[in-house]
Design brief:
single chain; about 450 residues; 2 domains; 19 helices; MB_O-acyltransferase; acyltransferase; transmembrane; MBOAT family protein
């Protein structure tokens, strides 16, 4: 069920009315029911699979809390990682060899028909973090239904943000409807529509033909296709997060921010504090710090950084291009640390900020080509055509308007997205923006597109 679809609108309005019309003590159960319906809408079979792993994980958590035995920690992590590795990597590899090599063995036809469970990367990391936090003693009890709601909470279920227990648990009994949350909810929903429907989906129509046939376009259009994809993936994923946060606000919950103007970063370290923030902090807290964090030698620091970023790349996808995307960013972080140490944006003059912005942008675009391309053959074909002087072109006014809109939105985010300055403007700003967005949607040729991060 896509956030930018009529089905979700009907689903959410139904949930909203029933939820707020019910006594406070029943609201948790209503959210659980609607969250189950939300996932079942995609697949009833995988809902049972998902729920089984919720039960297994909670069994491990209770074992940790009651016995403090490490076997329950190991069991909880191994079970969840085995689930992720099988579906995302082993199963995909088996499907590939069956398709490409015409290999046949028992159940091969059934194997090719199995899909990747929706949201498996996100809910796996969320459950693993919860299990490790239980082992670290960050909480002493774990009511089963609270855990179910924490994992299944439908606004963030499919593509994050990746929540921690302390982001959510203390809100379960306190969620209430107030003007501040309603206003912030509408701001985020409007932002999500603008990013996803009016920018990401529109620029996708311009750049997809170039990605499908780079040789048919001139070199500058190839470069713009890479730039356009960076605009698309930001507006698509941060647009999803805005939909998620907006829906959560309207239900009385605040879930973590996941993007904050990443394309205004002046260092690679800053970039990863602004892009997919909840994944970056997850990698830091559950991989990087256990490997030694900053309290290791310079050589070990570089190795750990490259390792965790490479694993972060593999988390995104099961192809080697994702691995090299993560590897590239790990190397860049290591080089930056060696040459400049810890970079504080506040201590940089304007020239250094501009220089840093240009360098980060260039390497982000290089990485974006790894992120989008399925294999090295596609990458070579793409970049070898950068010197083409002939072919079709995409550098039209529409393209530049979309790029400008993307950076304008990030400028607003950079200047404190929902600052108190907006609080007194909500009564007229929300309806005015809604009307503008409505007419933009009516005028544009729109098509319901899935979110890029749904595949992860």
């Amino acid at each position: 069920m896509l956030f930018n679809s009529l089905d979700y609108l009907i689903f959410f309005i139904s949930c909203y009315i029933i939820y707020w019309s019910s006594p406070r003590n029943f609201r948790k159960y209503i959210l659980i029911v609607f969250s189950l319906i939300f996932y079942a809408y995609w697949s009833k079979a995988f809902l049972f699979h998902f729920f089984a792993f919720i039960v297994l994980s909670h069994f491990a958590i209770l074992g940790i809390l009651k016995t403090k035995k490490k076997i329950f920690l190991i069991m909880g992590i191994v079970v969840n990682l085995a689930n992720l590795i099988f579906f995302k990597y082993i199963l995909t590899y088996l499907q590939y060899i069956i398709k490409e090599d015409s290999v046949r063995f028992p159940f091969s036809d059934s194997i090719t028909s199995i899909a990747l469970p929706l949201a498996i990367s996100f809910y796996t990391f969320q459950m693993i973090a919860y299990i490790i936090d239980a082992w670290r003693g960050k909480f002493t009890e774990s009511p089963f239904l609270d855990f179910v709601l924490f994992i299944l909470f439908f606004p963030q279920l499919i593509a994050g943000p990746i929540m921690r227990h302390d982001d959510f648990y203390n809100q379960i009994e306190k969620a209430q409807l107030n003007w501040d949350y309603v206003q912030r909810g509408f701001y985020h929903l409007i932002s999500g529509i603008i990013k996803k429907v009016l920018i990401a989906d529109q620029i996708a129509k311009l750049i997809n033909p170039v990605w499908n046939d780079p040789a048919g376009y001139d070199g500058f259009s190839v470069f713009l296709a890479v730039l356009g994809f960076s605009v698309q993936v930001f507006c698509d994923f941060s647009g999803y997060t805005d939909f998620a946060r907006g829906s959560a606000f309207l239900l009385g919950y605040e879930i973590p921010e996941n993007f904050k103007a990443p394309y205004f970063s002046v260092s690679f370290t800053e970039l990863w504090t602004r892009w997919h923030i909840t994944l970056s902090t997850w990698i830091r807290d559950y991989l990087y710090i256990p490997l030694g964090g900053n309290k290791v030698s310079e050589t070990r620091f570089k190795f750990n950084t490259i390792l965790v970023m490479s694993l972060g790349g593999l988390w995104h996808g099961n192809t080697y291009t994702f691995f090299f995307w993560g590897l590239l960013h790990g190397i860049l972080l290591g080089i930056e640390r060696s040459l400049f140490g810890k970079i504080d944006r506040k201590n940089l003059n304007l020239q250094k900020k501009i220089f840093g912005f240009i360098i980060v942008t260039i390497f982000w675009l290089i990485g974006a080509s790894f992120f989008r391309a399925e294999n090295f053959q596609k990458l070579i074909l793409l970049w070898s055509n950068i010197i083409n002087l002939k072919g079709n072109i995409i550098y039209k006014p529409d393209f530049w308007v979309l790029v400008f809109a993307c950076y304008s939105i990030q400028f607003i985010e950079f200047r404190n997205y929902f600052s108190p300055k907006f609080a007194n403007m909500g009564k007229w700003l929300v309806p005015t923006t809604c009307i503008i967005v409505y007419f933009a949607l009516v005028k544009m040729e729109t098509q319901v597109e899935t979110f890029i991060y749904f595949q992860f």
